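Give me the 3D structure for DNA-binding response regulator.
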Amino acid sequence: MDTINVMLIDDHRVVRQGLRDFLELQDEIEIVGEASSGEEGVQLARELLPDVVLMDLVMPGIDGVETTRRLKAVSPSTRVIVLTSFADDEKVFPAIKAGAISYLLKDISPEELAHAIRAAQRNEAVLHPEVATKLMQEFSSPRPNEAPVDQLTPREMDVLRLVARGMSNKEIAEALIISEKTTKTHLSNILSKLHLADRTQVAIYALRKRLVPMDDQ
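Predicted structure for DNA-binding response regulator (217 residues):
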């Protein structure tokens, strides 16, 4: 079982300690660093290149959105999980656009948080239900200047729809009777052709283009 290196960025020491106390009990999760501000977090990420970062949004200095943007610039492979207090925070959409893969509330259960970290390591998004609903409402209408969907092959369209339904690469491979490697190749092609950054943006794109029914989410 591969170790998942996790870094914490939160200006509240008590919050960081609570996260550390639980996550250090997980066999495959290792806390490799902590930061109390965005600036410190970006510098630490540059040095540690963590697999996953748990990111607070409201911090002194640069906020979690800008921290996410800068962190992804210095460590593109790091997955950022936003962990905040409010589902209706105005920073929800900017955080996701900045590169956050998941958006969760701090009242999440420890087990659900561990699940989200493991999912992030697999490059899979986990969203709080209220946030998922807001995303669907915000992004369900088609918008101009997006890459046209007709660039995709029929098989890439199949993969896109299944990604938008929240299926993992393994589940998609089983559903389409292809290998996980082939699934990853199709997903990479989708991201490249549509100029998208991750699975979350693929799902948003599919909703905007009405390629999947809203009740499939």
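The beta strands are 4-9, 29-35, 52-55, 79-84, 100-105. Let me know if you want a second pass.
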